[in-house]
Fold each of these.
Amino acid sequence: MTTSADVAGAHGHGEPGRAGRADWAALTRLALRLVGPGIVIVIVLAAGLSAVVVIQYGYNFADPTQAASLAVLAQSPAIRVLFGAPIALDTAGGFTVWRTGMFAAIAAATWALLTATRITRGEEQAGRWAVLLAGRIRLQELVGHHLMILLGTQIALGVALGAAMIAAGATARGAVLHAGCLMTVGVFFASVGVLCAQLMSDRRTATGLAAGLLIAGLLARMVADGVEQLAWLAWLTPFGLMAEVEPYGAGRVAPLMVLAGYAMLAGALAVVSARHRDVGTGVFDRAGTRPSRMALLGSIGGFAVRRTVAAFAGWAGGLCAYFFLIGLLARSLTAFLTANPRFAEMAAQAGFAGLTTPQGYLASLFALLALPLGLFATTRLAVEAADEVEGRLSLVFSRPVTRRRWAAVQLAVLAGACIGLALLAGTAAWSGATIVGARLSLWEALAGTVNVTPIALLSLAAAMLALGWAPRAVVPVGAIPAVGGFLLTVLGELFNWPRWVGSLSPFAHLAPVPSTHPDWTGAAGLLAVSLVLATAGLFAYTRRDLRS
Amino acid sequence: MAVVDASLPIRAVGLSKSFRATLAVDRIDLTVGPGEVFGFLGPNGAGKSTTIRLLLGLLRPTAGQVLIFGTDAADAVAAHRRLAYVPADVALWPSLTGAECLQLLANLGPGIDRSYRNELLQRFDLDVDKRCGTYSTGNRQKVALVAAFATQADLLVLDEPASGLDPLMEQEFRRCIAAAVSRGQTVFLSSHHLAEVESVCDRVGILRAGRLVEVAGLDDLRRLRRTEVTVAFGPSAVVPAEELARTAGVSAVRRTSASNLSLTLTGSPAATLRVLAAADVVALDVREPSLEEIFLDYYGSAA
């Protein structure tokens, strides 16, 4: 939020014509307020989770023979592809890096790029940068300044993570390397976010581009780990470089340096490209004029579909690529685990049971699909909330359109889109599995992916509940069933938490389809809860004041 | 409960709205009759937009009720079938073109007069193949105005509709209002632009700090107020300043120079004219105060 005090501060003392110390101090306060409590949550989650895993390792994997046998896991390319290379699993730090590293890196990267585009392009698009730049600050300086703020947040994350791991008992050198990796991945994606915000003139497109690069980075890492001839790809992706460091194995510093180089390159490109554009525009500005297309503007439903199509295509592309790859691995992984039952047991302990058949293996991975589907539904409903807060719905609701009908239609379209994404992901997994000759029918694959949609619908319903009460809380509340539930399940299984704790997660009420039959009662229960939440949300949405 | 009269475009009874501790709209009673052009005046922050959002059912009243053509404002489908709205700050979907926004808005209602819309587009000189994200404030306002006027709805609710328009377009806007009035449409026009209200409205409500302090016909409102009279006397005339000051209806008598005098007159001028007839008056300037001055009178120096 821009306050008069902050803006006034931007004209503080200093050399005339150049921004002085007071200007930068005011800008820093402003940027920190925008970065807000988000970074604190990310730091607490990443550092806390890693520390907890380090501590729990002592209880669960204290037996050295058991720990030593884990190392053999590295022989399976499929294991590497899915969970990252298992290195030094006989140490608490090594196990923590393998179990939480990729998750924490993805979380930090996602937060970094979302925040980067929000505090740069988002603020600029809202017209607030025009106010700041009316002072003595130049655009390029402002972009550079925000990069530094983001760098600061990632350093804070790195320091907290490293300190937490060391305090929990992990070896210092590995902890520092691991924290350095996560920090640099975060800095890289923050820089990529700022760069995309320079290239694109609207925040959503910039975020989409940056998120696309993140997904490409993840897929490249999976391919590099799975296909020996393409192992060099690891050096092109932050996630691959991070794995190359092997904090508790080889402990290489060179890949970390390369990663830091990439981050600096992205940051430098961002600052340079800021020089080649006007305020309020992007380097690749979309044409201001285009022929009007009147399709799907005839009804509320049509318009809801029209607005969802582009995002649907983006998510579908990412999900299909991922699940196609998963399908391709179906045979090699199941063959490996059948030959090494010990590892199947290990994987079960890490939250992935029954990996010895293509059906079991895919059932485990299809459960993961609930996360992107839930996030898709939630972020799309957040677009609805943004439309309201930015005043676009005032015109709509001045027409003979009820809020109940409008919101119900959005929910129906998003629910349909979730099922559509599930069907596409299932088809992609089946295609991959069929190419490598794994025995899996299309029907089984589709049943498996559609089986997880109740969790996505629960996320959608939770997001609707938030829209009814607090439109700004749509994303955090909507993410609870899918992301929160997943974390609860994984941690509960890892640490043998009491059964009732685990049963709070919606994932506990899904059967692993296609390896078993669907849990109809569980699915019906999830759908019933979704229906109640969505109805309550719709009711509140209809009765409250429209924000603007 | 308000008396239901389906012919009345707007009927608000005891309408109040609080946002936590802030009372934004305070017990407003208001009736706008069919075919009327009602001006809704008030300084920034007086609660004009809040009142309008209450009329549209976008906000829920804390107390009181709004009836639009006899239907509760909360019933959007029935209340909005005969209504079109232009917000003060028009927000459109940045990726849609102007034509696409117009198409969507037209399709959400009972339909529009397409030939009139095309005429309006020409008159407002709007390039509809531009993405709304690239439109200026004035152009976004034009989109909303074209969308509203093209519906030819029985009631137009316009919230500071011309604030972003240039003078030429403002004229065009006034012509559209005149055309709407001649068609029998009712117009509810909020503004702090007095010339706009003065030139188009039949009746004016003045809102101050959430309260409707005055509702009057434009003529009533003027008559309620003073007339400014400036008198120039001949070089050798005896200026009857003291006598004027004692005359009924006269106030603020001021000698602006040896032979000039100004006074404020309320009510009938007969007595004053009798006094002046006896003196050697060489020039007399009688001026009706502008709405702006009436307006300032309400708010005093705080306006």
Amino acid sequence: MSVLVDDDTRVVVQGITGGEGKFHAEQMMEYGTNVVAGAVPGKGGQEAAGVPVYDTVHEAVEEENADTSVIFVPPAFAGDAIFEALDSDLDLAVAITEGIPTQDMAKVNKRLSETDTRLVGPNCPGLITPGEAKLGILPGNIFSEGKVGLVSRSGTLTYQVVDNLTNRGIGQTTAIGIGGDPIIGTDFVDALELFENDDETEAIVMCGEIGGEDEEEAAAFIDEHVDTPVAGFIAGRTAPPGKRMGHAGAIVSGSGTGTAESKISALNDAGVPVGDTPEEVADHIEEFLA
Amino acid sequence: MAMKLHEYQAKQVFADAGVPTPSSQLASDVDGVLTAAEEIGYPVAVKAQVQVGGRGKAGGIELVENEEEAREAAESIIGMDLKGYHVGQVLVEEAVDFTDELYVGITMDRGEGKPVAMVSTKGGVNIEEVAEEDPDAIAREHIDPAFGMHPFQARKAVYDAGVDKSVANDVASVLTTLYDLWESRDGSDTEINPLMVTAEDDVIAADAVMNIDEDALFRQPELAEMEEEAASGGDELEQKADEYGFDYVRLEGNVGIIGNGAGLVMTTLDLVDYYGGEPANFLDVGGGAKAARIANALDMVFSDDNVDSVVFNIFGGITRGDEVAKGINEALEQFDEIPKPVVVRLAGTNWEEGMEILNEDLVTVEQTLEDAVERTVAYAEEVNE
């Protein structure tokens, strides 16, 4: 079992004729992902990465029964690409693109409340169910099959923590990178709920960072609704207020909201141990599984 | 990330959209200030044009009554260092007699994923402090970005805030204009604090804040041009980072940090602190960095005099270990003697290829993030013994 993606997932890649889109479509297929089509306006009828390209996502759904989209469209057009995915009756859209204007995402966010399609991202590495399929740009070789669900706002931090787990022989059910932007689709609470309802997931790692209040909301949700043991990590303890740490969302505001202390204490109050180092996170998970 | 306009730039944008602003002139030397003050008529405010909050408290704003005071203010403000920013220009502005100071602003509420309009009768002070100490003093109205702000919402926010009826319509109209600018110009924040109310019941914008979503500058060419002007100032190294296109933040410590991906670089900073060191910077080379970019990153961190040792931590996804190793060699082989010890940890895509290429005479190699950071902190301590 796993969440959101497995070897039955049928993927359309939006932007498959671009450099990134083509490269990662091939990488996904090499990993075992069932990529069935590409969608690029004006490129319908061509072939890319060995699959047919359609002008619209609608056609890819009609002709190839795609149920999931992975979006590698440049930021100026990515908002529109997400709207197209949300209009195409898909189960899931994964937006990898970094740098989408915030107001475009605010409009997407509004549309999300009216549709059944789930969005992961944007500005995220995607998600992976080890041994079955991956959607996005995560390096497949560091993951291994197992019982730990992982959700994270940061790509390379996900790799780091997965590495700490895999080195101890601890595998993963599914790892989800939800992205570092201020406005995202699937958030911590959504991902935690998916893992809580997944029979195979026996422990959860949640990697947050400074900025916003998503981690605090996740802590409240864990307290009420999650029985699966959760271990946390929060990046940005040493970040000074007012300085953005790379991610658009990773900033401690002048008034002190979004601090690491606030997130760590909220998680601790919900019974979630928070590691000082990625290695300590792996320690906690090892104890949970023992 | 937001690009911040200078006050004089934001005021121009607001004035062009019909928001009443005091008459003002920009000046860059004492004579310019005196001429401007003469034309506007005393009293005037002399205001440093740098994009940092709390200019008044830091001595960057003076109210002057006559030529002698104006000269003194100009001499002290122009050229001063204000919280690390060099003051090159001042705005000379008509001093407005007011009876009330309001706050009006539009920002993105990230929790809700929606813009929010805010109005308060407690203007003229730091609004974040008001938000903390007296949250009910700020009326908030969330806006559906698909529709924009309905006129009734502007009125509602103004009434909810308790703004006096005699100016309510004018304040609502300013708020509507602020939202229109926020939307059409890709603002992340548009704000007037204070919006002054005069004895004659006029409203006038005594300050102006306009921050633009950097990710949207491609469709805001006029504002992108203003950025050229606004970019003057700031730390030398931060400017260099801008040229190289790095996400870079300068900090107080002596352990230089280079890595890929915001979350992992932040974690590396935290680990430096955990092992008893102090981070000198945050530097994210981004995804897919090639050798030249890696070399530039090392060059940047080396040129920070505070740095005593450097940790280079790369977990490759789309970044490849062999490119990283090439870049490190390139940067270090130009030195007869390595200026500061460098500790390298490579993992992920092509890390084995990277380890074969890496010249291990020039760097210290560690296998894990924890070991790499601990070693780098130890090197920094040795330098200071």
